[in-house]
Amino acid sequence: MSVLLTLAFTQCQRPDEPMRPQLLLPKDKMTSLLTNLHLAEARVEASRLAPDSARAMFNQLRRDLFWRYETTDSAFYQSYRYYAVHDKDLDKIYGDVIDSLSMREMKMEEKK
Hints:
Blueprint: H1 2-13, H2 27-47, H3 51-68, H4 73-85, H5 87-111
Helix pairs in contact: 2-3, 2-5, 4-5
InterPro entries: DUF4296
Organism: Hymenobacter crusticola
Domain DUF4296: 21-105
């Protein structure tokens, strides 16, 4: 009987499907935002600032991006967690991020 109670209890704690966040960012917006966050991170790394200054610079760039995309850090992180649970969704989003970054890199190399 205790085994049945244990199974019932653990099943109650694991939802089959996570709740969709109220402010879920669409996949295309998430892709664009992640692409720009990675570009901001690369910009900060290339600046060779002291760690504290680099962190402050990245935080400001991130805030600017959230403002530009008309979203909040909370909506972004909730959306990211939601898509992470849906592996195929996050794989598709990051596939598109990688494609976008690769195309930008190719265009920069062509200009050189």
